[in-house]
Each structure stands twice: as structure tokens, then as C-alpha cells.
Write a structure and sequence with these properties.
39% of the residues lie in helices and 21% in strands. By secondary structure, it is of the alpha/beta class. Helix 12 (319-333) runs parallel beside helix 13 (355-362). The longest helix is centred in the first third of the chain and has 19 residues, at 62-80.
């Protein structure tokens, strides 16, 4: 069907609103935009689906939400049988424009198929959704969120019955059902199939998080702590501030202007805790109160970033550094976390620093690497549930999980663990930077960096594929820079270490440094992950700079 024919079809939908119709009418005057809106259907990636909102098959709107949900629902019925209709689906949504509308549209579509839904009454965090799916014995879950993407984006994530994002083996089947779906309009639905969740499940989640931590206010080896937290206008406000305030050791502060649920994230350029800009107001407020720790979570509260006070300044910790300190804290400094674990293990992704695995293995803790995307970590937790004792899963992009209450990264429990670590080490007269330097002195110096290149529109995919092709043309023992040789090339399209095939290639050098390239699964980007090592900080930085120069030459 040609683009003009698709436009006519969409304009004929029976329940189309005046606003939607006006948007489609504007496309008649802009052929390039018409093609952009209809040249393909939306596609799932490593983090589910994220897309610009608007009318068209290549945008997120009520009709594409119906199509996705109908395909997902048909898959569930055919795959699991009639139990799907009784167990139902848990649905959560973030603070973005249209998130609640899309969540309700998903619930209506499920009801049209005779499937019960349990939808949160208010914007809710991703970790609470992941917990709720298994806690309520649901067959699956849906989250409407685009994480830290710009305000004009939204997204759709699908979870299995354990609260884990669906992995490729199931995702491919679901996508096939979605692609075969032709539904545009809904018939009569049973409103009784749409149920709203009260606060009981959220309270159960908070109780579990409290029990999983060691920083009980009655213990003497934790210092009083001043901590500032900001949700960056997202969903983390209520659960994190509530849990922090429950600890009598903590004096808690926040950024008042960022506590409001704002779909435009008006006080920040991007609500991304990986970026310093997101912390500008928090740093100002933190300095005013001389806090020990500043934390921020993204809009759906599955990731957390942190700054720690050192003398009169604040220093940011990377996701790799936070994860490595967590491993060190739980396996060496506070062994209460592992004293009852017979076969402890940690999980990390292939593009995450090797420092955490070095710490773990030095303490007889198994480390398992997974592909990029926390769904693979959740999948491994399920796989090893009966044979090993899960300690920690983490990835370089500020996502962590401790405990088996969820199967996705958890910015709530991770925030509490970071605060606990700062309090624990403060009692010993140390900052987390002091601890990081202790780790380096024992295990070597590590430097990491992520470099992203964005290529928008129809031509963007071709450019990304061209770069990946050039990366794959590199051969073993090629001299990329003057003092390191390539000793190993892992092309994960060929399935390495029994991992599923994935469009990732990782080059490892004879000095234990490495670089990995992968197209983003949720954005029009190609990402280069760099991990460098050295016997000194200077040597590690030099190796990092050399790899960056190689990437710059490759992109030209």
C-alpha cells in the first residue's frame, strides 16, 4: 500500500479524534514527513520499543498501541491457554504525555480479547511493575515509558510472568504476532476486566526492599548521613523519599522544583542520571545543605546516578564505578550479604567494566557475562535460581539489581544500597572515592567511556550499518595503535560463549583493554564502549585516549 493510501485509510478510522485527524491532514502538505511516518512499522529492540509520538505506523499512538497489545494478547492466549484470561496482565506507566492514555488503551485492547488487566492508579516505577507481576501471579506485564528520552518520545516494554523483560526467543514470536495484526478499531469490551491496583502491592514491594538491606538504624557501624535525592520529575519521588526517610540515620533533602511529575522535564535538558547536566539543581541544593550524597533517578526509576562529597566538592561516580563498589562492599567490606549464600554469583553485561568481575572472582564469587540489556540479566537469574545464590546484577548504564524480588534494574533498591554504602564507609572515615582508590590499588586501574553517534531518519540506519561493517573488517593482529595488538575479536552475531546472537562486536587488546560497538536497540544511535586498564591511572587514561582516536578515524 502506498503512503497516500495509508493516509486515507488512517483518516477513515471510526473513532479518530479531531486532533488526530488534523495531524494527518497536515501530512498531505509534507511528503517527506508522510513517508517518514508510514515507511515502516515500529520495531522492538533491547529495551523494548521507544518512538516519537504522533500519527502513523512509524509513531506511537493509540492505534499502534492497539496493534502491539493485540498481537501480544493473541500470543499469550495461543501460547499459554485460557489461564491468561484469569491471571491477567499488570500495566504501569510513567509521567510522560499520553502514558496514562496509552496504558488505558492497552487495557481496553486486552479486555477486547477477554484478558484481565491490573493497572496502577498513578504513574509508577518500572521496578515496582517488575515486582508486581510475579507477586500478583500475573502472566505478564506492560510498562508505558521511554525512560530518559526527550519529552516527544514514549515507549512500550513487555514483561514475562517472572517480571523479566521478554528475551529474543519470546520477543521474536510476539513480534510475529504483532506484525500479523491488522486491528485498528475495538468492538465492545467488558469494563470489569480492567482493574485498578491499590497501594498494597507497593507496600509489599517496600517491605521487601527494607528487608534486603543491612543498614538498620539500630546498628552501630553506620554513620549519620545527609542525602539529597531528586526524581527528575519522574516516578521515583514517593517510593525513594519514603524509604530514605524511614531510616533514622538519614537526614533527607530534595530539589523541590523537580518533585513535580512533569512530562516535559522542564528543569533539565535531559532527565538522564548519566549526564552531569541533570544534576545542576541537585548540586546547588546539595552544596547549600552540605550533604554527603546526591542521587537522581530517571523518569521510570530503573536507573540511578550519584555524586559523593569529597572535602568541599562533589564527584560523580560512573555506572561502572558504582557497580564495582557494590561488588566490593557486598563481598569484602560487609560480608553479611554473602554469609548465608552457598554459591554466590554476580551478573554483568559484556560492555560493562571487568573490574567488578575481578573483585568477585578474587573472592570466589562466580561472574557471568550477558549480552547488553537487563532482560538478559533477568533471564540468567531465572536460569540459575535453583543452583546458585544471586548477589548482584548490573550494567554500565547505571542499572543495578540486588535481590530476587524483581527481574529488571531497580533504581529504588539501588538508591538505598548506595546510601547504605556511603553511611557504612563514612563511619570508617572514608568516602566512596577513597574506597574506589583502595580497589584500584588492589586490582589495577580501570577507565571506561561510552561514545554515542546519532543518525536520525531513513538514512541513519544505513550509516550505522556501514560503520558496523567497517568495524567487522578489522582483523586479528591488526595494529590499531602503537602499543597494543588485537588478541581477540568477539563477533556476537556468531554467538560467543553460548550467548544469543546479537549485533555486537568486541575487540580485545593484549593490554586487557577493549572496545565494543553496537547499534542502540531503542534509539537511532551507534554506541562504542571502551574499557581500558593499566598499572597506573595515567597508563589507563593513555590507553583510553588511543582507543578513542581509533574510533574517531573509523567514523570519518
Amino acid at each position: 500500500m502506498k503512503f497516500q493510501e495509508k493516509l486515507v485509510e488512517w483518516k477513515s478510522f471510526k473513532d479518530i479524534t479531531e486532533e488526530e485527524l488534523n495531524e494527518l491532514n497536515l501530512l498531505e502538505e509534507d511528503e517527506d514527513e508522510l513517508i517518514e511516518r508510514f515507511h515502516k512499522d515500529l520495531e522492538f529492540g533491547t529495551g523494548g520499543l521507544r518512538a516519537l509520538m504522533g500519527m502513523g505506523t512509524n509513531r506511537l499512538n493509540r492505534y499502534t498501541i492497539r496493534k502491539i497489545t493485540y498481537g501480544y494478547g493473541k500470543f499469550l492466549i495461543n501460547y499459554y491457554g485460557d489461564c491468561v484470561k484469569d491471571k491477567g496482565i499488570v500495566i504501569a506507566y510513567d509521567v510522560r504525555n499520553n502514558s496514562k492514555l496509552f496504558a488505558l488503551e492497552a487495557a481496553k485492547t486486552l479486555a477486547y480479547l477477554g484478558i484481565k488487566s491490573m493497572i496502577f492508579k498513578e504513574a509508577t516505577t518500572t521496578p515496582e511493575l517488575s515486582f508486581s507481576v510475579s507477586h500478583l501471579n500475573a502472566i505478564g506485564g506492560i510498562v508505558i515509558t521511554a525512560s530518559h528520552n526527550p519529552p516527544e518520545y514514549n515507549g512500550y516494554k513487555i514483561y514475562d510472568c517472572t517480571g523479566c523483560q521478554v528475551t529474543p526467543s519470546l520477543a521474536d514470536i510476539i513480534i510475529d504476532y504483532i506484525n500479523r495484526t491488522k486491528i485498528n478499531e475495538l468492538g465492545n469490551i467488558d469494563q470489569n476486566l480492567i482493574n485498578y491496583l491499590d497501594d498494597l502491592v507497593k507496600n509489599d514491594y517496600k517491605d521487601f526492599v527494607k528487608r534486603s538491606l543491612m543498614s538498620d538504624s539500630t546498628e552501630s557501624n553506620f554513620a549519620q548521613l545527609k542525602v539529597l535525592y531528586t526524581p527528575l520529575h519522574g516516578t521515583g519521588n514517593k517510593p525513594i523519599l519514603s524509604l530514605l526517610n524511614d531510616n533514622k540515620n538519614y537526614e533527607v533533602y530534595s530539589v523541590a522544583s523537580q518533585l513535580t511529575e512533569d512530562p516535559f522535564f522542564s528543569t533539565v535538558k535531559s532527565p538522564n542520571p548519566e549526564e552531569k547536566e541533570a544534576f545542576i539543581l541537585a548540586l546547588e541544593e546539595g552544596k547549600k545543605h552540605s550533604v554527603d550524597l546526591i542521587m537522581a533517578t530517571d523518569p521510570d526509576c530503573d536507573r540511578v546516578g550519584a555524586y559523593v562529597k569529597v572535602n568541599d566538592d562533589f564527584i560523580a561516580l560512573s555506572g561502572n564505578q558504582i557497580g564495582s563498589i557494590m561488588v566490593y562492599y557486598m563481598s569484602i567490606s560487609n560480608k553479611k550479604y554473602i554469609e548465608d549464600l552457598k554459591r554466590p554469583y554476580i551478573l554483568k553485561t559484556i560492555v560493562t567494566s571487568n573490574l567488578g568481575s575481578k573483585i568477585a572472582e578474587n573472592n570466589n564469587i562466580k561472574c557471568i557475562n550477558t549480552l547488553t540489556g537487563f532482560k538478559y540479566i533477568g533471564e540468567k537469574i531465572n536460569e540459575y535460581l535453583d543452583d546458585y545464590d544471586f548477589l548482584l546484577g548490573y550494567e554500565e548504564s547505571y542499572g543495578y539489581l540486588t535481590g530476587t524480588h524483581a527481574r529488571d534494574k531497580d533504581g529504588i533498591s539501588s538508591s538505598l544500597l548506595i546510601a547504605e554504602m556511603v553511611s557504612f564507609y563514612k563511619y570508617q572515615g572514608k568516602t566512596l572515592i577513597d574506597v574506589l582508590n583502595e580497589i584500584y590499588s588492589q586490582f589495577g586501574y580501570f577507565e571506561e567511556e561510552l561514545i554515542s553517534y546519532t543518525f536520525e531518519g531513513r538514512n541513519g540506519l544505513n550509516k550505522i550499518n556501514e560503520i558496523m561493517y567497517k568495524f567487522r573488517e578489522i582483523k586479528l593482529h591488526d595494529k590499531i595503535f602503537y602499543d597494543a595488538n588485537i588478541v581477540k575479536i568477539n563477533d556476537y552475531l556468531k554467538s560467543i560463549d553460548n550467548l544469543p546472537k546479537s549485533d555486537v562486536i568486541k575487540i580485545i587488546f593484549d593490554n586487557d583493554s577493549w572496545v565494543a560497538a553496537r547499534p542502540s536497540g531503542t534509539e537511532p544511535k551507534i554506541k562504542f564502549y571502551i574499557g581500558s586498564t593499566g598499572s597506573s591511572k595515567e597508563e589507563a587514561l593513555k590507553n583510553l585516549i588511543n582507543i578513542k582516536k581509533f574510533i574517531e578515524n573509523l567514523i570519518k
